[in-house]
Every structure is written in structure tokens, then in C-alpha cells.
Give the backbone structure.
Amino acid sequence: KLHSDLDKGVGTVKYTLSGDGAGTVFTIDETTGDIHAIRSLDREEKPFYTLRAQAVDVDTKKPLEPESEFIIKVQDINDNEPKFLDGPYVASVPEMSPVGAYVLQVKATDADDPTYGNSARVVYSILQGQPYFSIDPKTGVIRTALPNMDREVKEQYQVLIQAKDMGGQLGGLAGTTTVNITLTDVNDNPPRFPKSIFHLKVPESSHVGSAVGRIRAVDPDFGKNAEIEYNIVPGDGGNLFDITTDESTQEGVIKLKKPLDFETKKAYTFKVEASNLHLDHRFHSVGPFKDTATVKINVLDMDEPPVFSKPVYTMEVYEDTPVGTIIGAVTAQDLDAGSSSVRYFIDWKNDVDSYFTIDATEGTIATNELLDRESTAQYNFSIIASKVSNPLLTSKVNVIINVLDVNEFPPEISVPYETSVCENAKPGQVIQTVTAADKDLSPTGQRFSFRLSAEASNKPNFTVHDYRNNTAGIETRRNGYSRRQQELYFLPVVIEDSSYPVQSSTNTMTIRVCRCDSDGTILSCNVEAIFLPVGLSTGALIAILLCIVILLVIVVLYVALRRQKKKNTLMTSKEDIRDNVIHYDDEGGGEEDTQAFDIGALRNPKVIEDNKIRRDIKPDTLHFARQRPPVEDNTDIRDFINQRLQENDVDPTAPPYDSLATYAYEGNGSVAESLSSIDSLTTEADQDYDYLSDWGPRFKILADMFGEEESYNPDKVT
């Protein structure tokens, strides 16, 4: 209610209201000033309103007092119940937790004014879920109320929580929510086999590594707490089997580790242990977390293929063994109860298998062809055995046949057949070490011996020193060798082996003589290098050879030209030959006649030196002039003629008709005696010229000339 002191109650004052909610929530009586609420108020929606009021004159509309402001506060009442804004709740707690283990905290919200009365004072309680859980009335914390709650007994719990205001007093408003609590698993249960003995039946034909059965231990735990590990307890039969865990089913899978044989053993018994992988130390006191069961396996008899007595058969045979010779046998048996007969045959794969045959009943292996170790040293093939009662059941075995060697090849030198020796080699020097190779398969301890052949053992050039370790040395026996005398030596070496029968071969080694330095390093082994001077360069050697070739060409040309000119000067008739004789028409007085012939030319040495042209032949311009010693003045003419005669005798280029040279001296003391017919006792026709034939080849033409025809009468010489 509003009232102004100026209001006398006569209706001259009017009250107005403005501000928050004026006209919509609140209204004022203009005459009395009473304020009324025109609708319901909600504190939770708006807790207070700010309004302004003023008194004005009715007539003048002017304010009688200043505008005044006031607040209307809405007083709370308990009209809102507590609410769980986060519900419903989900929580979990490990099983076997102790009493009072924390589970979850819940919270309820009341919209009423917490500062006014007990309208917003909330108290929590459990309406459903007892006696397993409890809740703190003030904080809303939920805890376990019973010990050792077992997940395996009950896993899920639904708890109903109530929140009530007014402190839980009668008349208070309440709200509820649900809490779903799950007990999580812990490893509090060991695995247990549902039975103590497991019986399995396994065929003896089961393959190694295959699964032959499954067993399972039960663990009520969950997840990793239920993981089980299986192990075979060492004992009878356990070494033939193995066990693993199937991760998806947690079963123990029994696998075969070794082959089974019904005829050998029909049953196996062993124990299997199941244990947890992940243990919880809080529950060790419960007992061991493992269990043991017995497994009995009965082996079922199956119709099996024959079994060979050996996994591999190895045999030996000498090469060149006659066809049909038995070299060994294989054996296979049917171990089944029926014990069927066995048949053998070779597993043909290639042509190599045709070298052998097998007896189908006895299993003996024999040669079918001649064997050669040098072609094939080992044969490897398979033999199949099958049961007569069931030919489809077969087994296979490998057979290895080694061909033994027969000594049929002689040993040979395994190093190159050519070596070298230095010219300056000393006696006893080893120039080459040789070894031997044998195409035969050398047995253990075989030795080779080396020696010279019989025809070479007496030669003083080289020898063979056998070191008796399958090697030998070629040694020198001379002090130095000469390439000029002999460049190559051929040394026959005889090599023998120690097998039976003894085989030997003669191997010829070629030894080349080479020029070496003082250290034995080979400098040259070429033949042409013998004649080349040491120290000349290649260019100098080529120049020398070129000069030699040019000189040879000049000599050849010169000789050819000389022969051609000599042919031109030879006369083909007797008349031409006699024309070379100088004829005189007068008869002189012999040596004392100086008028018919100028003898001064014979006495004057200077004239002799200048006059070098012979009168009986055409001068040859290519003929090399011979150096003649000068004749001293007043020397005897006889000495001069003898000198000229000797000079012509030793001249290889002089033609055979040099005998026609004119001599100024004749008479006693001359080899030809007197050529004049003055002192002749007989006529010219009666003279005998046979003595000219005794003068040698140089006078042959002259002898033939005077001895041919009797009708020939030469001019008289004066």
C-alpha cells in the first residue's frame, strides 16, 4: 500500500506505478494506493521486482512528491522436489571387495531457496538395493554393504536412490534415480576340469603335427582371468604328444609330435595340467590355481604301407662290373597284423635308372649296363615297395650307389708342358716344379713317382728330382746354356701311379733357353734377340736393319748388272775371239826392237797408273778400280808382269778371257815361253798346243781356239 501525506482522503491525489512488472504482474489502485498481484509469482523464475511509485494532483497532473523506488521480493515456498540431473547412473566395483568399498557418488539439486527454511535441504536414502550397498545421507556416496560379493554368483545390481528435501521430514518433496552397479571380475577361481579322465582314440596313420583331440578346464572367471595354460606332465607317453591352448575357446588342443604305431604300442596315458596365466596375489590363500586331469589315448590299427629297414640304402660297385651282377638288396616289411607280402620296383624318372634292375620279390639290385666312373660317379634313385594285398599302399626309399674306380688312366702332368731356363743357370738349379693329375678316382694314399725316360737319362742337360710328395723338380745339370747352340730342349718325363695295375705315361716338356739378368729374371726368350746388340733402342735397330736391306739390294743390282755386261762382251765365234789378238804386219827384232812397239809404257810407272783401260775388253764404268802399288823406276819388267799376272789371278771379277792380255815379255823364263815362230823348229801346223790345257781354266778358251781345226792358220806374231 502506498500513501502520501498530502492525501487528505478527498480524492485529489492520484497514485501511479511504473517499473519491473508494472501493469503485467502488479497493479495499483489510483485512489487508495493499494498494490495487488494480478498473477501467480514463482521465486524460481524471478525472485524480486523493482518498481517506482508517484503521487500526482488529479486536476493539475503535477507530481505532489518526488518519485520513489521500492523492491518487491518473492518469498520462497517448498514447491520444487530434488532432481538428479546426471541420472540414471552406471558404476562398477570389483567382486570380493570389502565392506565400505567406494562405488559412486550421486547428487540431487533442489531449485528452492537454500537460505530460507528447509526447502532445499536434501537427504539421500536407498529405496532398493539393500543390504548390498549403502549411501551416505548427506554426501550421496554409495559404498558396498556386504563383504565378498561374488561376481560368479550375481554380477549386476540395480540400486534405487531417493533424495528428499525439508531434511527428510514429513511433507518434504522427494526425487529418485537408479544406479546400475556391476561387479567386475577378479581371478578368484582356479580352472577346474569337469572330469578327471579324458578318453581319446587316435588312428595310427595320423600325421605328425595334426590335432588328435581336445580337452577343456572350466574357469568361472572372465576375460584374462579365465585364460588357461595347458601342459603335459612328464611321464609315460607324454613325449609323443604336445598340447596348446585355443585362444578363442580356451581349450587344450592335443597334437601328435611323433608317429604312432599300433604294432609297437596300442595305448598311451599321461596327465595334463591346466593353470591360470594371470594370478591375483590377494587370493593365494584360496589354494593353487591349477588342476590336473588324466588323458588316455588308444591307438587305432590302420592298414599301413610297408616299412623299409633303413631310411637310406648306400651301396658300392666297381666300374666295368659285368651286367647282371648283384650289388645289394633292400628290405621292406608289412608290420600290420595281416603281414602281407611286399613287391619292389624302381621309381623310373630318367634314363639313369635303367642302369640297374631290382628283383620284385627279393629286392636284390643288379647292374643292367656297364658302368663308367669317369662318366657317372654316383647314382641316386628311388625304390618303391607296395603291399600285395593293397597295392595302393606304397612306401619309398632312396638308394645311393657309388661307383668305385678301377685304375685305367695313367697320370699326366697337371702344369703347362713348357718352361724356360736361363743361359746363366747353374747346375742343380730347379727351373720348374711339376705335379700330376689322374682321371681315376685316387684312393687314399695314392702316390705318383717321377723320373726321366731311359733315352733322356744319359743326356747331360736336365734331370728330374722326385720329392716323393706327388711333386718333382726339373733341375739343370749344366753350367750355363747357349741359345745360339740350341734354343729348345725336349725333356721326356715318366710318371707312374701307385694303384693296381700300375699306369704310367711319358710327358714331354719343352724347355726354352732365355736370356736372364743376374737375379734370374727373364729378359728375352725370342730367337731374333740373340743377334741384336744390347742397349740399342727399337728405332736404332730398325735403322740398322733398313741399312742392311739397302746394301743387300745394291749388291744384288750390281751383280746382276755385271753379269749382263759380261754376257755382252763374250764373243760367239772364233773369229771374234781372234780379233782380240793384236796383229803386226812387220817382223821385228825381238826384245831389242824398240821401233815396232813402244816399250816405254811398260817401263814408266806413271804411264801405267794413268792407263788403266785394258785393250782386250771394253772398259766397264761400274768396275771398281783396284789400287795397285806403283812400280819403281828402272824395275825389272819381269817383276812387273808377274805382279800383273798375280793381280789378275786373285781378281774374282776378271772374265775368263784375261789370258788374252798382251805381255811385253817373252822368251826364256816366261811361263808361256816364246810366242814367236822365229825360233820354232817346226812349222806352225806341226806345233802342239795341248800344253795350254794345263795352264788352268783361264787359258781354256785359248787352248780350245788352237786345238779345234788344222786348217786354221793364225798370223805370225812378231
User: Anything to note?
Assistant: The first strand starts at residue 13 and ends at 19. Confidence is low (pLDDT under 50) at residues 529-534, 571-579, 611-628, 709-718.
